[in-house]
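For reference, the entry.
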Amino acid sequence: MAALFERSVLGLDVGSHGIKAVELKVSPRTVAPGQYRVHPRVDTQAPLRDHLQRFLGMHHLPTETVAAALPARQLSTRRLEFPFSDARRLEQAIPFEIEAETPFELDDIVVDWNLLSGDRQHGVVAATLARNEHVGLAIQTLEDAGCEPQVLEAEGLVLANLAPVFALDGTHLIADIGHEKTTFCAVIDGRPALARSLPVAGKAMTESLASELGLDLEAAEQHKLENGALGGKGGAASPGVAAIVDRIAREAVRTLEAAEARHGEGPIAREATLTLIGGSARLDGIDTVLARRTGLACQRLRMPADAPHANLAEGIDPVLFGPALALALRLSGEAVTRMNFRRGEFAYRQDLASVFGRELRPTAILAAVLVGLLLASTLSGIVIQNQRAGRHRQAAAELYAEAFPGRANAPAKPASALRGELASAQERAEFLGLYSGNRSALNLLAELSEAIPSDLEVRITEVAIDRNVIRLDVDAQGYEAADRLTTVLSETSPFEGAEVSGSVRQDRKTGGVSFNVNIPLATPGGAA
């Protein structure tokens, strides 16, 4: 079932020296590794579009859901504070704060933000802005190559997505040492606090070696990789390369100090760990030199063996693929950042055919299964109801035959016929005046007359008979007559329930008494 909801996402790290891609298989509960690919940009004069098309086609990489990043040099980040942290209110307030602090019009920039900290009465955000022209060019370039990005993140800040997967707890400064630039991301308690970029990295080191040793750039690059440039592998340290690493170390310390000032919650720079990623971070001895220059614990990115997502780093070098992996994680449930410059006029517009063909395929399959189950349930219900109705018709026909044995043919609808016969019998009973035991009113009066002894001196002045009771108004000579009358009637069917109703009244002039007698016609627990 998990595979039913699985989709492939692609993190695309477009560098000046190479292109790296990480494919992840993402489902609501799992993140699994796919392809990890790297493509060197040997011909730097060829358009980026051509490199991307060749790279994607060669490895058959998925392009339906892609995340890329704007270069850090094209971004500007501001730390803003508000007396609230509600996302909707922040979304409305941040652009106006940015407009007041920058020389750009709101119509000329795209602004997005990450919440750094907040409670009901205070919110701190890192708002990042980019020029419309830069956003549009990045989208157009990737779209022309056939990999339009669904998410366009901020280079640097997006590296914070590595923190939960690689267990980078506490304060970490992630340094992406690439070919032309070094990008820093300060991560405090799993959240990105600050990102900066320095325009020196591996290329500057190679150029320095070439100048010192009188080599061309290709030979200098090979010398750097094989012999080192910082005194490792038995070779002498290059003063130029050491100076570049010193500059990277100074900028790392400045970035941490700036993050500490922005965070505003005590010293964090001395407690930080410097974590290295990027192609030039693999230079032999660079971690040792940076640790000595910064005074920080320094390590290359590595996956803890007991980490829940340890499979994401199996068989690959996370130092090289770190930036691309951070972009791919942005499209998963493990993402820390939520920045996306595809807003407003640059908003991503999903191809509906693609949605119905890919994103909604699991839903369509489940819907088809549910419709099938519903049809099966409906059909089985109809069959059961028909069988039940057939049994009821058979039982009704048998009852009809028992009630009317002289009828030659049973009716097509015996239940309706029985209801009709019952209604007809009730009409005849009402017309003929039938009461208990199918007696008529005349029969009841005759039986009542026979039940009263001739020596009992009573005079019945009024008789009322309905379907349930006979009411008698009686005059007699004394009280004992009332007792004797009810006793005699109670011993005669169908007058067993006879009783005096109300009190016995005495006529003062004649000395006689009058009383009422009620005789129920319904037998106990039965019908009248």
